[in-house]
Amino acid sequence: MTVVNASGKDRLGSAQSALNVSFAEALRCVQLYFALCTKQIFSAYKKAPKAAKQAVQRQIPILIRTIRSSPELLCIISNPPEGSENLLMQVLQILTDGTCAPPELITTVKRLYETKLKDAGVLIPILSSLTKDEVLPIFPKLVDLPLEKFQAALARILQGSAHTGPSLTPAEVLIAIHGIDPERDGIQLKKITDACSTCFEQRAVFTQPVLAKVLNQLVEQTPLPLLFMRTVIQAIGAFPALVDFVMEILSRLVNKQIWRLPKLWVGFLKCAYQTKPHSFHVLLQLPAAQLENAFNKNPALRVPLVAHASQPNIRSSLPRSTLVVLGLVQDAQPANSAPQIPPLTDVGSSGQIATETQASESAVLS
Fold it and tell me: Distance of CA 172 to CAs 178, 180, 214, Å?
């Protein structure tokens, strides 16, 4: 009796095992069928009428969530039919929505970008899974995308993954933007300024401490970034409480002989004018020749600055050459021996060389 029961159990176990294998095989066949359907959908997408494309876009999430990153789907992603780029982006969004992209998908998408689809937009869905070292080399290409795509890329970069945190911190994002050179990287200046403005719109992320950290690092770069003064002006516009910190930045720029960088010099004077009277003590640090140049470029500075400098405790601390420019003492030298402003393209004592670009001064500061 015991033998019979054991034999019955064996047969039952064998039947159950066969059922499990059968289910696994069935599931595999269904997934393969779905993958083949997906391939057909991709192939037909380009020539499909608008209504058909809309229907596909509505129903494809169900199919993709079923097969996930199967080998068959990865094969389709690695070589998408021409004209199916929009559908590909939707599929990638579905595969990465609310979850970390699997390593196989990341590898497939990176290879696709490097070898076939030279559109950085295809990388957006996997950006949150990339490291800082992987994001920085492609960052200029992300900035060069249409603004709405850059905004999506920025959101993914700042989101990062639950395991590693953001791909770039907010400070690193702004510093990376300022590291883009329009000529070297082949990116329009407006693209770069729009990227900066996008960051400033997110004040809950790009906070006052973040901006202070960024400015403190950028001011030490040689050469200074082309958009540095524009960012200083934006920062103080967004966070007026930064005014004292910005005055420290301006003083450091005087030590760097900012007047030797024509486009940045214009921005310096604009910032000084917008922050008066806080900036008066900074302007009085300028050499006499540069102070005269500042008055020539922005005559509205003269009257209030002279009034400020006329205070006895301030006047007594100023060199005679500055007092002459302010008109507070008479110039004892003949007119033809007045100090001359050195060429603005000379190399400063800090070793900084003026950065010449195609952008106009108004484009840099607008």
Answer: 10, 13, 8
**Contact by Cβ (8 Å): 282, 247:** yes
Residue 207 CA to residue 213 CA, distance in Å, equals 10
- How far out from the chain centre does Cα 145 lie? 11
Closest CA to 84 of 127, 40, 149: 40
Residues 314, 318, 320, 326, Cα dihedral to 10°: -60
SS3 279: coil
Task: Name the residue with tokens 């004892």.
Answer: 332
Which are the contacts of 35, defined by CB distance < 8 A and separation ≥ 6?
Answer: 67, 70, 72, 73, 76
- Calculate the dihedral angle through the C-alpha atoms of 237, 243, 248, 254, rounding to the nearest 10 degrees: 60
Instruction: Report the C-alpha gap between 90 and 72 in whole angstroms.
Output: 17
Buried residues in 69-92 as b, exposed as e (16+ CB within 10 A): bbebbbebbeebbeebbebbbbbb
Distance CA 42, CA 116 (A): 17
Q: Considering only the C-alpha atoms of the chain, give the largest distance between any 2 of them, rounded to a whole number of Å.
A: 130
Q: What is the pLDDT of residues 147-189, one digit of tens each?
A: 999 999 999 999 987 777 899 999 999 999 999 999 999 999 9
In angstroms, the CA 328 to CA 330 distance is 7
Residue with tokens 């596909």: 56
Residue with tokens 């019955």: 8
Peptide bond into 223 cis (omega under 30): yes
pTM (two decimals): 0.80
